[in-house]
Amino acid sequence: MKLIITYAQALSLVAVALAAPQTFQQAAGGTVPFPPQSQQPKALSFEQAVGLVSPAGGNIISSSQTPAQTNGGISTSAGCRRNIFRKWGTLSATEKGNFVGAIRCLTQRPPRGVWSGARSRYDELVWVHAQMTPRVHGLDLFLPWHRYYLFAFRTLLSQECGYNGAIPWWRETNNAGNIAASDIFSPQYFGSLPPATGGGGQCLNDGAFAGLTSRINNQCVSRGEVKSESNQVSVQNENLCQQASSFPQHRACVESTNHARMHRGIGPTMANAAMSPSDPVFFLHHSYVDWQWKRWQNAASSRWTTISGCADFNSPCTPLRRKTVLTSLGLIKNMRLGKFLDTEGNRLCYTYDEF
Fold it and tell me: Which PANTHER family does the record match to this protein (predicted)?
């Protein structure tokens, strides 16, 4: 049964979320080390990324060059734009607080049996990503699966917490060089982003998620900015990935540049590829990743209905197709990839405020 809350109740929920962080179990100690690099998203320099999208770099992704699949000529030119996802900075304080409060609500909703170790629906959401990490990172399933995962996240916000408010995304390059100053990382919303010290980060101790713990490894959710990583998130990388002529090139470029750099730059929790959704800022970050793919798709209408690349690491790999099944291990129902190619199709029906 869908839980419906009134606007007044939503405001009350936000007040509770921001005023009572002590309800989370506090993890022992205040400092968490960064995970080893083998557990972090793979990051490439700009020069290395150029090789992915240039003709000379074709061999890097040659295993992903499988035939494109079409949708049989169905037109998507009309487009469903019922939901316009807006940049975080354009939201009012009330809208920002409502969104944060809805995520907080999800951390307090009971689990539904997806994972026996969960204490909340949010724990199950994180567990699914941790389990799927080896199957959806470092190959062409990365972008479609994470679009599906964001859909699962929004579905849970609606079904579990009755949230029907604004869905924000973070244009990270707008904060390049000083991301900690964004009000995303403030005690009013997602909590502070301190600098990394001594190879570690600090447990969240302010904001709506102070004291939040990842049930998978029983570590506190922690942050510690590594500026040598976060400072490499750039418009230059965005534009480079936009120039890719094939989907595998675009995916490899997006995953290995701004995406990986911001994960590693915010860590330690975000720097752990499997555990990263334990930090709720993950969902703002991956909405930005999805925006990059949508921008690339909008450059040619054929990209709304076609896909190519590898669905696994087999040799030869299983081709990525519209009929490829996307799974969240029971969190929401399995769906075919073709439903998630066109964000303005009937299934998703959204776009971004810059388009």
Answer: TYROSINASE FAMILY MEMBER, TYROSINASE-LIKE PROTEIN TYR-1-RELATED
Instruction: Please give the structure tokens belonging to residue 350.
Output: 């959204």
Integer Cα distance of 33 and 129 in angstroms: 21
Which are the contacts of 60, defined by CB distance < 8 A and separation ≥ 6? 51, 52, 252
Coil vs helix vs strand at 69: strand
8 A C-beta contact, residue 220 and residue 7: no
On whether the CB atoms of residues 143 and 297 are closer than 8 A, the answer is no
pLDDT tens digits along 200-233: 999 999 999 999 999 999 999 999 999 999 999 9
Phi, psi for residue 169 in degrees, rounded to 5: -135, 160
Structure tokens at 172: 């990270």
CA distance 155 to 143: 18
At 316, which amino acid appears? P
- Say how many C-beta atoms besides its own lie within 10 A of residue 6's C-beta: 9
What 3-state DSSP class applies to 106? helix
Residue 31 confidence class, pLDDT cut points 50, 70, 90: confident
Report d(CA 307, CA 312) in Å as an integer: 14
Helix (H, G, I), strand (E, B) or coil at 214: strand
- Domains belonging to the chain, first-starting first, are 7-352 (1.10.1280.10)
Quick: pLDDT tens for 232-271: 999 999 999 999 999 999 999 999 999 999 999 999 999 9
CB within 8 Å of 8: residues ≥ 6 apart: none
